[in-house]
Design brief:
heterodimer, A: alpha+beta, Heat Shock Protein 90, 7 helices, 6 strands, globular, B: about 120 residues, Glutaredoxin, binds adenosine-5'-diphosphate, binds magnesium ion
């Protein structure tokens, strides 16, 4: 994957596949501590400890012929290449949080990419899922909650093309403002 | 900064523009969003479908996503379902191909055979 916004899109697919109805996505640009954190938290079906071990324990996974899937392995490899890592906490029946951490100033750290496009695509295709997006950067904080938008629309579907376009612009401009313009 | 107030204008405008997707049993376009699909460019493909649908004001077309379709080497892929017709599977998509598919297949009813999985299989 080329950038953080594509890892985000891929990891959210896991939450959707797990039957989540609320998905909280956040990006924290903790420049002071030289960290970039992507976190996806969902209320999907969750995983038991063995499953979490299976998908995170490198010793376990190298002994099996192949990974359970590709997505988490990609994210983990990218994070580890940037002195970071991937952390999963999950409870069956409750939900899952996947946190991917990168060293912020690492030369190989993927750029943020088009987070506006990722969120717009997710909302457009999954109108009944609530997406909450929080972005914390040195220049401020952005928060988007698709349920708030839905309430304002009073019955107009949130996947109406004009609304989707508005969401994309709202997030794009919001991120530009707090990260000081331009894709980091 | 954009404000949530703008949503009220969008709502007004949308409600005034006649038939607000009363029933959504028209065409369905399903884009594969598995890891391989995303890595191969499924997001720009999906956005191109959304953009064309918006531009042409195609009110009875739904663009949606699914997980892995299971044929990684053909990604990005999309399936088109038109009522009463066989499913058409498009492979190795790009935003340019999407614009042709919308113009020729979605709007004019002629599938773009050269972009389908059948054509790719024969190569
Ligand atoms: N958010 C989640 N909730 C529940 N299960 C998950 C979640 N994320 C990952 N998993 C489990 O881990 C497996 C591996 O995920 P991944 O590496 O993304 O590969 P894939 O999505 O192709 O299966 C998934 O198939 C699923 O069983
Ligand atoms: Mg996955």
């Amino acid at each position: 994957m080329e950038d953080i916004s594509l890892y985000m899109l891929d990891l959210v697919q896991n939450s959707i596949a797990a039957g989540a109805t609320i998905i909280e996505i956040s990006v924290i640009e903790d420049v002071q501590n030289d960290k970039l954190i992507l976190s996806i938290k969902d209320n999907g079906r969750g995983m038991d400890p063995q499953m979490v071990k299976k998908i995170t324990d490198p010793f376990y996974t190298t002994r099996t012929t192949r990974r359970v899937g590709l997505g988490l392995a990609f994210a983990e490899a990218a994070a580890q290449a940037c002195d970071g890592g991937i952390y999963i906490s999950s409870q069956p029946g409750k939900g899952t949080e996947v946190r991917v951490e990168f060293k912020y100033h690492h030369i190989d750290r993927p750029p943020l990419g088009r987070i506006d496009q990722t969120i717009a695509a997710l909302v457009a295709c999954n109108p009944s899922i609530e997406f909450v997006y929080t972005h914390i950067a040195p220049g401020g904080r952005l928060r988007f909650d698709s349920r708030e938008v839905q309430q304002r629309l009073e019955g107009l579907p949130i996947d109406h093309p004009d609304v989707v376009e508005w969401i994309r612009e709202y997030i794009g401009e919001g991120i530009d403002e707090i990260s000081g313009g331009g894709g980091v | 900064m954009k404000s949530l107030k703008e949503l009220e204008e969008i709502r007004q405008r949308a409600l005034e523009s006649v038939n607000l997707r009363k029933e959504r049993n028209g065409t369905r376009i399903v884009v594969g969003m598995g890891t391989c699909g995303i890595a191969a460019g499924a997001r720009p493909v999906l956005l191109a479908f959304l953009e064309e649908v918006k531009k042409r004001n195609l009110q009875d077309v739904i663009v949606t996503q699914t997980g892995c379709i299971g044929m990684c080497r053909f990604e990005p892929m999309a399936e088109v379902y038109k009522p009463g017709e066989d499913k058409v599977t498009y492979v190795k998509l790009t935003p340019e191909k999407v614009r042709r598919i919308v113009a020729e297949h979605i709007v004019n009813g002629r599938p773009v055979t050269e972009f389908t999985i059948g054509a790719a299989d024969q190569q």
